[in-house]
Design brief:
- Helix content is about 45%, strand content about 15%.
- It has about 350 residues and is an alpha/beta fold.
- The protein has a six-stranded parallel sheet with strand order 2-1-3-4-5-11, sandwiched between helices. The chain has a six-stranded mixed sheet with strand order 7-6-8-9-10-12, with helices on both faces.
- Strand 9, helix 13 and strand 10 form a beta-alpha-beta unit.
- Helix 2 packs across helix 3 and helix 7 runs parallel beside helix 8.
- The protein is elongated, with a radius of gyration of 25 Å.
- The relative contact order is 0.12.
- About 5% of the residues have low confidence.
Length: about 350
């Protein structure tokens, strides 16, 4: 059976009664075509089932209609943590709305960094969305050398580029303010020995949440702070350390919901009632976690999906393919940060 040839630009032009050049302009998103003609072309495209040749289109537009999403974590972490799924969903929704392909790149070691750098420099994508960076991560320098437009998820913590170049745009939540609200809530509930399980302290979100905790409890006993890593296992380990050295603690602020879930398991093992003996507050409000813990988790909500959508929107604006995101960039003009507010969500754990 012979396969039918794919419809061509010429066929669409003949069906619509316009020139080939007009069809090309409509297909490539040129806004300068009169709406009556553009509608004829779109109708002919639908009737014929015309699919643009992306390779040929990229030669004309110098665009690839693809964006790389780079997550600086191993795949075992990415696929186990619902935070990443939420952020990817927000990114995907925005890219899909503009017919842009998402290319997912994960990094686990130095070989992966070099691979990502080669891919980005190879002209395969129009830009990159990068998140979950660590302070010693070489990716910012690699991406800068690749020369692709980039938006970061999370406040950058690395030094500015040589020559004083501004940092790339980023999207984050008010980590420090959210942490302050969580700790003030615990203080207001009469808790006096409030511990903190940090996230991975080579990430700015964890540092900001620790700073917010210290803003409220300036003279806190260092023994009430234990380092975690944003995972349930890290929360379990840190909770055991805290109970061993500060058994009189009566509250815990955990750096994220997964950490809190691990802490709750250990408190239950040790016979501590939540919230009667120990109140627990998390951070993120990931419903797949916060509503499933026992008891359901009081936590600080950040809109993770919206953060992903805004990252993609900013990148598309820089690329010239979409309007700017809702909200003002800090500092006005040029690359800057968009910081979303947080809110405390009260449930049964505190």
């Amino acid at each position: 059976m012979t396969e039918e040839p794919r419809p061509t630009l010429e066929a669409v032009a003949a069906r619509a009664g316009v020139s080939r050049a007009t069809v090309s302009r409509v297909v490539n998103g040129d806004p300068g075509v009169r709406e009556v003609l553009a509608e004829k072309v779109r109708r002919a495209v639908d009737e014929l089932g015309y699919v643009p040749n992306r390779a040929a289109r990229s030669l004309v537009t110098r665009r690839h209609d693809a964006v790389a999403v780079v997550i600086a974590e191993p795949e075992t972490r990415v696929f186990a943590d619902p935070f990443f799924a939420l952020q990817l969903r927000g990114i995907s929704k925005e890219l899909t709305a503009h017919d842009i392909q998402l290319v997912l790149l994960l990094t686990e070691g130095r070989d992966d960094h070099e691979r990502v750098g080669r891919y980005l420099a190879g002209g395969h994508v129009d830009g990159a969305l990068v998140f979950s960076l660590h302070l010693d991560d070489p990716l910012p320098g690699i991406i800068r050398r690749a020369g692709v437009p980039t938006v970061f998820g999370g406040r950058p913590g690395w030094p500015r580029a040589e020559g004083g170049e501004p940092d790339a745009p980023y999207v984050d939540c008010d980590n420090r303010g959210g942490a302050r609200e969580a700790v003030r809530y615990l203080v207001g509930r009469g808790r006096r020995r409030i511990a903190h399980i940090t996230g991975a302290l080579d990430q700015t979100s964890a540092v900001d949440r620790l700073d917010g905790y210290r803003d409220v409890l300036a003279d806190v006993d260092p023994g009430l702070i234990a380092e975690g890593d944003f995972t349930p296992a890290g929360g379990e380990r840190a909770m055991r350390e805290l109970l061993d050295r500060a058994p009189e603690l009566d509250a815990v602020f955990a750096a994220n919901d997964l950490t809190a879930s691990g802490a709750l398991r250990v408190l239950r093992e040790r016979g501590r009632r939540v919230p009667d003996d120990v109140a627990v507050v998390g951070f993120d409000d990931m419903l797949a976690v916060a509503e499933q813990t026992e008891p359901p988790l009081t936590t600080v909500r950040q809109d993770i999906e919206e953060m992903g959508r805004l990252m993609a929107g900013i990148l598309l604006r820089e690329r010239g393919g979409a309007a700017g995101p809702d909200g003002e960039a800090e500092g006005g003009g040029g690359p800057a940060g968009v910081v979303l507010p947080t809110a405390l969500v009260r449930r049964a754990s505190a």
